[in-house]
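Q: Given only this backbone (305 positions), what sequence would you predict?
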């Protein structure tokens, strides 16, 4: 007759942590049912919510095979719920900030007329899963069809510090742009005064000091017969700045019909926020995130000699 597994703690889950030891091979669900004064659904719930640990690792499989001597811990508190993120990947998170890589097509934050899924809404749900009082705050934005690295604050104080000291805190901010035509100059700078029309379209004013000063630096990474790939650095961060300036030099961003593009060699806007490097607003530590160049951006150059 086989021996019943020994319990190294009180039966049930009345204490914050219940520690059990397997005395013989057994499936995890069967082991828990034999050891705990709880119904089958209740035990399955413990597994589903990440409250069962085998040798220190959360285990959710009913048929996980226990070996003699393994320690099983049942925690009273549920593990924080994980919120699936659509079109977003978290690159860094601490108690003050979240840094993400946003896909093309996802809004940063909804406008008055748009209430669809946004980066802001998803990240709010993410932080509230761990802390019901948690919130996130917008620091800067990316256009819906621009992909790449973004930062959000977890408090209004951190948001204000980042926004008020953005030029000093941000050490590097660069984009990659796939543009129409063959860019001749290997490096260049575009400077203009940006204004917004009544149709919400940004444009460069022909008059000095008329609008917001915008300065964009670019470096040629690859040039083809029909398209060019540029590395773009922002000295200022104005709305649609890169898109307007690329149109100004006669090389609009591919897929950007709003600002003069007639070609769509890839199924998205050819603009990606590649690098963001900044001093942490609280610790002062320098953080740098490089999301690389989307593979799609190389497609127009394939087959060219």
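A: Predicted residues:
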């Amino acid at each position: 007759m086989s021996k019943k597994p020994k319990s190294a703690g009180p039966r049930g889950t009345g204490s914050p942590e219940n520690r059990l030891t397997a005395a013989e091979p057994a499936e995890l669900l069967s082991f828990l049912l034999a050891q705990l004064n709880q119904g089958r659904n209740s035990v399955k719930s413990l597994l589903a919510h990440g409250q069962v640990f085998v040798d220190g690792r959360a285990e959710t499989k009913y048929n996980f095979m226990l070996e003699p001597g393994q320690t099983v811990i049942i925690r009273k508190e549920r593990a924080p719920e994980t919120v699936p993120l659509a079109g977003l990947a978290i690159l860094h998170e601490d108690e003050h900030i979240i840094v993400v890589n946003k896909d093309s097509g996802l809004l940063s934050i909804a406008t008055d007329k748009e209430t669809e899924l946004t980066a802001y809404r998803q990240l709010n749900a993410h932080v509230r899963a761990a802390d019901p009082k948690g919130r996130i705050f917008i620091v800067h934005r990316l256009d819906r069809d621009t992909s790449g690295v973004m930062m959000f604050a977890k408090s209004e104080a951190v948001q204000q510090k980042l926004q008020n000291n953005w030029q000093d805190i941000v050490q590097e901010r660069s984009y990659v742009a796939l543009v129409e035509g063959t860019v001749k100059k290997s490096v260049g700078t575009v400077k203009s005064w940006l204004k917004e029309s009544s149709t919400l379209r940004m444009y460069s004013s022909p008059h000095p000091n008329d609008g917001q000063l915008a300065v964009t630096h670019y470096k040629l990474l690859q040039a083809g017969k029909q398209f060019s790939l540029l590395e773009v650095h922002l000295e200022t961060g104005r709305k649609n700045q890169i898109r307007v300036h690329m149109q100004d030099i006669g090389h609009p961003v591919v897929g950007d019909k709003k600002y003069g593009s007639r070609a769509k060699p890839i199924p998205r806007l050819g603009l990606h926020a590649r690098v963001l490097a900044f001093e942490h607003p609280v610790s002062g530590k320098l953080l740098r995130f490089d999301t690389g160049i989307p593979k799609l951006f190389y497609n127009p150059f394939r087959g060219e000699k």
